Structures are given as structure tokens and as C-alpha cells.
Amino acid sequence: MTLDLPKTGRFALRTATLPAAVTPGSALPAREGLSSADLIVADGRIEAILPAGAAPADIESVDLQRRMVWPCFADMHTHIDKGHIWDRQPNPTGDFDGALAAVRADREANWTARDVEMRMDFSLRCAYAHGTSLLRTHLDSLAPQHRISFEVFADMRERWKDRIALQAAALFPIDAIDDDAYFSDLVEVVVANGGLLGGVTFPLPDLDRRLDILFRTAADNGLDIDLHVDETQDANVLTLLAIAEAKLRNGFEGAVTVGHCCSLARQDDDKAKATIDKVREAGLSVVSLPMCNMYLQDRHPGRTPRSRGVTLLHELRAAGVPVAVSSDNTRDPFYAYGDLDMVEVFREAVRIAHLDHPLDDAAKVVTSLPADILQVPEVGRIAEGLGADLVIFNARSWSEFLSRPQADRIVMRNGMGIDRRLPDYSELDPLTKG
User: Fold this and answer.
1) Angle 239-249/269-282 helices, nearest 10 degrees?
2) 427 is catalytic
3) Helix-helix angle 113-130:145-159, to 10 degrees
4) Please, what is the angle between helix 180-192 and helix 145-159, to 10°?
5) Contact between residue 175 and residue 206 where contact means Cβ atoms under 8 Å apart
6) Based on C-alpha coordinates, what's the Rg of the chain?
7) Which of 268, 343, 327, 267 is closest to 293 using CA atoms?
8) Binning pLDDT at 50, 70 and 90, where does residue 434 land?
9) For residues 307 and 299, what is the distance between their CA atoms, to the nearest angstrom?
10) DSSP character for 423?
11) Distance between CA atoms of 284 and 52, rounded to whole angstroms?
12) Does the pLDDT value for residue 343 go beyond 70?
């Protein structure tokens, strides 16, 4: 798409098509969830959202000819510490157990500060070029990796603060919480680096005791929680319910996010409803990772998968639970593909989870909803007074938007177009070749 953006401090984007769901406060009429508007940008911020054709005639402008304009994206569940290790450590089986083993081997052999830094920076340059302005990553945090990766992350957060707002959650198996020396050191690292407590839950005879330790520790240190939950097709696994009950039991007032929750979709309707009701009561937020879960879940050699591997997005949303979708892994043993492109995530989520018909509110799952869950409400929406952090697409309707990858999009930050050139994979060759 060829489009010359104005270079002046104040200008108009005329005849834009906006997803109404991400333009709070706008009174513009909408059809199929889309509004026609003129945007006035001044000093890098949205000055006004006007009906199409209403922008003053005396200011510099560009006619978008009904092209769609979105806010920048929020990618709330990623693993940029793992990203781009596939070429040196593939997962030949493509399943969850194979991914665990492959990542463990690569981490123990290769994850120096330099290695993690190079791959994180590469990942963030991809996300930035695609239009992401807010990102949360989980960091593998078994000792001694927690100190290496959190230190690199803290440096990366500072270096990227004017381009992508970064958050990090510690990722460790919930049974490791019983190692007092390790867990105390991990909490110290998380607190020092402004992170979150995370972890992977799975069925244990005393899971409730460990969850109580997690919630008490988070409360004592003013930390929020972001957990990997029930990433399995086993219908008998449902730690999600235990997490909701633990939050209520401990009176925990911080934010709690749960990711994956795949086994929920394997429950019968009554059991699933009871769990969803408890999730709503506890005030949990849910993020689904549709591309990675479809890749890993229900994979058996020589057999077509029977299950989509995603959680009950529609039922959770109908119950009032905040729900978002995100990238998850990128070119590592848990997911061999991906580029931290939230347009790809959105397009695939619409197909996989039937987020269409209607599409009126769909844009929120990669913009304002994850931004709200991450407590950065100025991201993921187009509104007067907010930064002009926008993505312009060569599409005028939902069908046009979802039918092509939108590789020719224009990304604006603070009212100016950015260089969208993606980093070349050859930059990572030194990490692969040793």
C-alpha cells in the first residue's frame, strides 16, 4: 500500500473505517461494527474523531478511501525468552512432552545473557514492526535462569520503553514452590524487577496448599499473578477451578490471569458452567492461545486431531469473564511458526474459535481487552486525547481484512509512520551455528 502520511504536526486522516468497539466515547453510527470517520491528529495524539467529511478543509490531510484504522495491539501472553530456537532445537514429535524436553535441553546448554538478549531483541523488533505497543512475556525461571533472564528483561524493558511497554511473569512448575530457598530467591528477583508471579499448575494431591502459598506470597509482596493452566486435553484435569477457589479463599485483591485452560472445553456442560461461574466470581481473566494450542493439542502420529485445543471463549465471555487471545510461543519447540504478528493471531482466532457472525466486537480481543487485563487502559483503543498509535490497513471491510495477511499495513506511533522492515533471520545465525 502506497500512502504518504502528512509530515506536519497537525493533520487529518480522512474517510477512515474504524472498528466501533475500540473507539470508546464515539457517537458515530456503525454498520457491522464499523464506523466511517475523519481523525484529527495533533502533536502525536488524537485531537478529534469526526464524522467522515467533517474535518476542516484548511489542514493538511490524506484521504484513506475507507481503509481500516485500528489502534496498536496488546500481546498479553508471549515467551520472548524462548523465541527463535527452533533451528537449533526442534521438536520432532510436535507434542507437549517433546516441547518440554527440547526447551529444557536448549535452556541448559545455551541460554546465556547474550543469547537471551539477542533473541528477545529480534522478537521485539518483529512485534513492533507488526504494530504491537504492549507485550507481556513469561520467563522460564528455574534456577539459575531466573536471575539471567530477568536481568536481561529489565534492560530490554528500559531500551524499548518508548516503543513497546513490557511486562514479565516468572514461569516455574508449581511444585517448585516447596523449595524455600529457591522460591524466596525467585520472589526477590521478581520484586526487584517489577514482574509478576506466574507458574504452571497441574494436579497434585496438595495443590491447594501450594496455591495458598502462591497467593499469600503475591499479596505480601504486592504482586499480580499470571498462570499457565490446564494445557491438556485430559478432561480430568481442571486446576482452573482450584485457582478460582484459592483466590476467593485467600481474599486476594490483585489481578489474576489464567492462560490456556484447554481442558475446560472437554468438560460436560454442567461441570464447565460451574467452573466458569466460579472463575467469574473470583474475577479471573482468561487468555487463549489458539495457534499454539492447535499445534500442540491432540497430536498423535498418523491421526487427524479431533479437538481444536482452545478454551470456551464464547461461554466465558457470555458469563462476563474478560477474555483475550495472544501469540504465545514463536519459532520454538512449543510452536514451530509465528512472528508475534497480532493480525495473524486475530485472523486465526476468528477462524478457530468462530469469533465471527457478527464481528462487531471481535477487534477487542487483541486490543482493548488485553490492555485492560494488563492494566494499561490507554493502549488498544482510539479516543480523543490518546496517542496516535495506529495501524492502517488496505482493507475496507471485515471480509477484505480477514482475507489477506495485511502485510502492507502502515504502523503509526505518536502520529508518525515507523520503519516496518522486519529483521532478517540471518541475524540469528551466530546463535544457531555456535
Assistant:
1) 30
2) no
3) 40
4) 10
5) no
6) 22
7) 327
8) low
9) 9
10) P
11) 39
12) yes
Residue tagged active-site, from 108, 158, 188, 231: 231
Residue found under cell 492502517: 392
Helix (H) or strand (E) holding 296: helix 290-296
The answer to whether residues 12 and 38 touch, using CB atoms and an 8 Å cutoff, is: yes
CA dihedral 401, 61, 71, 329 (to 10 degrees): 60
DSSP state letters, 67-125? -EEEEPEEEEEE-TTTTT-TTTS--TT-SHHHHHHHHHHHHHHH--HHHHHHHHHHHHH
Q: How far apart are the C-alpha atoms of 258 and 235, rounded to whole Å?
A: 17
Closest CA to 14 of 67, 73, 86, 77: 67
Write the DSSP symbol of residue 378.
T
Mean pLDDT of the chain: 97
**What is the distance between the alpha carbons of residues 322 and 251, in angstroms, rounded to a whole number?**
20
Report the C-alpha gap between 68 and 122 in whole angstroms. Answer: 28
Cα separation, 392 vs 232, in Å, equals 37
∠99-185-241 over CA atoms, to 5°? 55
Locus of grid cell 528455574: 142
- Grid coordinates standing for 251? 481474599
pLDDT of residue 309: 87
CB 98 within 8 A of CB 50: no
pLDDT per position as a tens digit, 11-49: 999 999 999 999 998 889 999 999 999 999 999 999 999
For 133, the 3-state DSSP assignment is strand
Kindly tell me if the per-residue pLDDT of 128 is higher than 80: yes
Residues 67-126: tens digit of each pLDDT: 999 999 999 999 999 999 999 999 999 999 999 999 999 999 999 999 999 999 999 999
What is the rounded CA–CA span in Å between residue 352 and residue 162? Answer: 34
pLDDT higher than threshold 60 for residue 127: yes
Q: What is the pLDDT of residues 351-371, one digit of tens each?
A: 999 999 999 999 999 999 999
| Rounded average pLDDT over 255-268 | 97
SS3 content of the chain, % helix, strand, coil (to 5): 40, 20, 40
* Entry pTM: 0.97
Residue 393 has pLDDT above 60, yes or no: yes
- Residue of 74, 102, 72, 76 lying closest to 88 (CA atoms): 102
DSSP calls for 267-282:
S-HHHHHHHHHHHHHH
Alpha helices in 204-238 (DSSP H): 207-221
Proportion of the chain above pLDDT 70, given as a percent: 100
